[in-house]
Amino acid sequence: MADTKTIYRHSAVTRVLHWLNALCVFLVLMSGLQIFNAHPRLYWGEYGANADTPFIQISHRTPGEKAFPAWATIPGWQDLAGGRRWHFFFAWLLVCNSVLYLLVSFANGHVRRDLMPRRAEMAPRQIARDFWNHLRLRFPAGEAARHYNVLQKLAYLGVIFVLAPMMLLTGLTMSPGINAAAPWLLDLFGGRQSARTLHFLTAMLIAAFILVHLVMVLLAGPVNELRSMITGRYVLRDRSE
């Protein structure tokens, strides 16, 4: 029988901020799809309208056709104004919560200790081995399960320091008020329509990350993983030989 040991994996602050962030992300994504359904065409550059050729077109090939179904949007019916209210409120709540999470993570050493890859982990052979283990659904056991592997570290760092800032900056670039205060954002992203396209594509990458994250939780053992994010306690099990 495999040996087990219970450790305290996540602090109360981390758990609360994690679940609040999760709620905000889902509501921001769903309300964003509601906004996108109002005009499911993406353009590149300064301008974009019905008569212009889209850079990306998700749907809207026939009048009234939506890009995303009602169950995936908030509100569930076509309501652009309502979607914008939901989107802006929870987007700013997400920003504030994320800033607090980062401050706590830097203060308690979480970023340096748990997320920054060591030089040995960045070796191509190590990355390839972790990737192969993921493909085989071979998850770390025992003491190795205490720490994130290099693929997890790179994924989390990418979301926190690349995708999240991209979402925020492209979102701000679509605001006329922000354009007046910070016109350099328009130059940075090549125009408001380009910013909208990048905003949508970044949101899809974040959605893909969430999907992979949830699948990994289910495959790695949902009871143990969820318990660690609810109570903070995680059970280490040595792999049986």
Description:
The protein is mostly helical and 241 residues long. The protein has one domain (4-237): Transmembrane di-heme cytochromes, Chain C (Fumarate Reductase Cytochrome B subunit, Up-down Bundle), CATH 1.20.950. The protein has nine helices and four strands, in the order E-H-E-E-H-H-H-H-H-H-H-H-E. A two-stranded antiparallel ribbon has the order 1-4. The protein has a two-stranded antiparallel ribbon with strand order 2-3. Helix 1 (12-37) packs antiparallel against helix 2 (80-107). The longest helix is centred in the last third of the chain and has 29 residues, at 192-220. The chain is elongated and about 65 Å long. The termini are close together. The model has no long low-confidence stretch (mean pLDDT 88).
Give the helices and strands, then pairings:
Blueprint: E1 4-8, H1 12-37, E2 41-42, E3 56-57, H2 80-107, H3 110-115, H4 124-135, H5 150-173, H6 176-181, H7 184-189, H8 192-220, H9 222-230, E4 233-237
Antiparallel strand pairs: 1-4, 2-3
Helix pairs in contact: 1-2, 5-8, 8-9
